[in-house]
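TODO from last week: model Cobalamin biosynthesis protein CobD.
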Amino acid sequence: MRADRVFAYGATAGLIGDRIFGDPRRGHPVAAFGRAAAAVERALWRDDRARGALHTLVCAGGAVAVGALGARAVRSRPAAAQVALTAVATWAVVGGTSLGREARAIGGALAAGDAEVARERLPHLCGRDPQALDEQQMARAVVESVAENTSDAVVGALVWGAAAGVPGLLAFRAVNTLDAMVGHKSPRHLRYGWASARLDDLVGWPGARLTALAAAAAGPDRRGAVRAWRADAAAHPSPNAGPVEAAFAGALGVRLGGTLAYGGRIEHRAVLNGETGRPVEVADIERAVRLSRRVTWLALGACVALRCAVSYGIRKGRG
């Protein structure tokens, strides 16, 4: 079976598997990778960029090697085995269903007036200090996290799966996980995590743009999404979260960004879609989750189409 069809069938099956089963409560492959990466950090850590780059190379390179070995093992097997490997890899690296479940759990607690339960659950979704947030700020944090993680936890992986098969799927999730572990600006990781953060910016670039495009295409306010993306994305400190959050803000007609609290550190960020957007409401969490799902399937279609077009061009060139 051609590689483009393997990816199309396997990625679709993997997304359906995620939709049905979500993430396993125990034994998740990403959690196993995280434990291995933490062990590598304990062995290599120095307050030094070079050591951090080596950490990134060892961990991300190991994920690529595992993916390449798996793909090689099924290369001569029946097509069903190749599709199954792609499906399992896709299911392992995407997290759209768990993202939606966590967002809805917090939204349900806020709708019921139970702010304390919402604060307890918020760290499962993002790294902000829940004690510093009121109900409206928590709702905004959830919508922002749904937007950003649609790119980080789903679309980015699909893009690299389309580009490089199973190794691409695993590599993207490895880099994204490393960024979450060491790519922040804590005193321990400011220098050590520099390489992981920069590599995550690089590999996340195409997925973030595809996510923003899909949000503009699938959202209730297409013009608003494009307008906010063009006007406000560059003001965000992240080159990839900016387009995604701005597009979601415009598509949903809300304002995102502003003052944030991370572990006692206050950040004042630009407001996204500030000219026409309204404050986020609890009901917007459900709207964001539904938009995230539409973006996921639209992005899958775009990745499959691109993979097929590239494969066709290669065959045409050889012919």
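Done. Residues 3-317 form one domain.
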